[in-house]
Amino acid sequence: MLRRIAAVLLGVITAFVLVAVIQKLGHSVYPPPPGLSLDDPETWKAYVAELPPGPFFFVLAAWALGTLGGGFVSARIAQEKPLLYALVVGAVVMIASIAQLVAIPHPIWFTIAAILLIPAAAYAAARLAPAPA
Predict the structure, then answer these.
(1) How many other C-beta atoms are found inside a 10 Å radius of the C-beta of residue 34?
(2) How many structural domains are present in the chain?
(3) Each residue of 34-44: pLDDT tens digit?
(4) Can you tell me the distance from the alpha carbon of 7 to that of 68, in angstroms, rounded to the nearest whole number?
(5) Structural domain of residue 50, as residue ranges?
């Protein structure tokens, strides 16, 4: 039981650390304008509406690679039912992603890509995790 809980927790932590690191990298390549307030949703909505595709690709990569890495860690630690554990991590990332998509409207192509990439990354993570011995 403890292994299962640890698998999910460490997988989710890994996913969100990877998401944060990749998004930070994206912000270094595509820095937000000075003075952009994270506390003002309307300002963020206007900013996102004017972005070129590049920053969106960093966010997609962050969500997909975070799911892949976190799902892999979860499946590896659990040592059983790798798809289940990878999908749990994917579901947590998906919920967080949907919350962001609802809070700040994104282009439709981005929303569709995110909804397709996150479960695909979870599935890939389960396939990459070594089979139990």
Answers:
(1) 5
(2) 1
(3) 877 777 778 87
(4) 14
(5) 2-128
